[in-house]
Amino acid sequence: MSRWLKGGYAASIFLFLYLPLVVVAVFSFNDSRFSLAWHGFTLDWYVRLWHNTGLMTAAVNSLIIAASAATLATFLGTIAAFVLHQYRFAGRRLLFGTFFVMMMSPDIVIAISLLLLFLALPLNLGFHTLLLAHIVLCVPFVAITVFSRFHRFQHDVIDAARDLGASEYQVFRHIVLPLAAPAVAAGWLLSFTLSLDDVIISFFNTGPGFEVLPLRIYSMVRLGIRPDVNALCVAMIVFTIIALILTKILLKEKK
Amino acid sequence: MKDNILFRKLLISGTLIWVGLLAVVPYLILLRTSFLERGGEILQAAGWSLANYTRLFSPAVFSMAVDSALLAAGTALLCLLVGYPFAYILVRSGEKAQPLLLLLVMIPFWTNSLIRTYALVIMLKADGIINSLLLRLGLIDQPLQLMYTSVAVFIGLVYTLLPFMILPLFAAFKAMDLQLIEAGRDLGAGPLQTLLRIIVPLTMPGIIAGTMLVFLPALGMFYIADILGGARSMLLGNYIRDQFLVFRDLPMGAAASVAMTVAMGILLLLYYLASRRSGGGHLK
Fold it and tell me: Which of A152, A231, B93, B148 could form a cystine bridge with A49, CB 3.0-4.6 A?
């Protein structure tokens, strides 16, 4: 009895989380523009989405930002994790604390404070400012993911390498990096999804010259439901699922 | 040897410099801006004023902030009440099922929240799924007005943020020695006693982390209020956005953001104290 109760409870939570997404997916294949009733299967909306240049440009922009921000954030975050793990220096605890606070900070505070920095410099809002903002968003997550991987290493390997005369660079390049490679790759995927996921930071830190998907969807959603937006949502969800499954595989411990 | 020291110095100072420039300096600018008078220039040297902070406590702004905080607190509370048993079921699920169930929680966690809000619109619209279903079942004769109400905003926040509560709770249950529950029972503790004196204290870091991850975004997610609440619902996030983009009153928007950071500071302090007490020590 209690087993059924637990199962039913878990199932209803999943229903709550997934029903809206499933409904969007179903409608993205529905051969009707306005009706909620089923009018037969079609791929028409996906074709239309493909030909909607405004939407596709925004989608490509989002992917470019996500890939570049993920790459740079992974680079900076991996170095930060290495620094935090290997070295003892003044400000180490402060750096740790800063990353932790950055991870917990509400997006709107990060967005606003970066906007003020860009206005103060001054930088024109667009690709570069959005890229910088997304790097700031992602780095702490990479640093913590990679750092926790470092924690599980066999430290004798690093000591052995040092005893055998390896330089710091060689230790980093040939010992630490290969051992941490799965976590580094997971950090990249995490950043990629984090960047695609973001609405608020994109809202404040890009300009009219560089439109990304969330802003485009935002202005469309306010005008109502559209079948090609349904198709776009499904495409984005599929992207997220693939990235997540890859991350899971990468972070899986070898037994 | 010299190269080693150079390499080390380069990495440490490089990291500290970019973190300083892109994380610490922007926040200091935010803090400074919040003390400017209306129309003040960013980075101007002179002029300190508490006017914005006083205005935060003026009736109009203060009641908006309180409403937003209550809505966020309600969201966090409901997510906690719903998510707590769920996280427990998840941690107790079989070894084979658990990774899959966890993945099913993570997919909405990582899906763009604007897309999830959009999906909710299809459910809540006057001619949406919920109304069609209720009409067909004969439970109502007229479509309910679900959209553009504060209830819709509340549903939207809970829907979006529930996974942010479940995941830290799951981690807290995972870190806890579940045998302590049986031990408590063997020693004669009733279900309520077990819950309040064993399970809750030991999962307190997860409870606070989850509350933080729900409460703070729930203050700021202005697009959910825009899409589901129309013009009526006002979150602190809507207020900040409007100060920046509509009224161009950057100092006021900055002050409201600082207020939000203060809320975060309080929650972080609680988290730190709780994780020290339960021996978790997540903060290094």
Answer: A231
User: In angstroms, what separates the C-alpha of B217 from chain A's closest C-alpha?
Assistant: 6
Mean pLDDT, each 10-residue run in order, chain B (284 residues): 84 94 95 88 79 92 93 97 95 88 91 91 85 87 87 95 95 87 84 86 91 94 91 84 91 95 92 76 40
Q: Could B23 and A14 be called an inter-chain contact, meaning their C-beta atoms sit closer than 8 Å?
A: no
Name which of A116, A167, A213 is nearest B29 (Cβ-Cβ).
Answer: A116
B3 Cβ contact partners less than 8 Å away, ≥ 6 residues apart:
A167, A168, A169
ipTM: 0.88
Which of B32, B33, B86, B118 to mutate to test binding with chain A, by most A CBs within 10 Å of its CB?
B118
| CATH for the stretch A44-251 | 1.10.3720.10
Question: B127 — contact with chain A (CB < 8 Å)?
Answer: yes
Which pTM value belongs to this model? 0.90
CATH says B53-277 is which class?
Answer: mainly alpha
Domain ranges of chain A: 1-42, 44-251
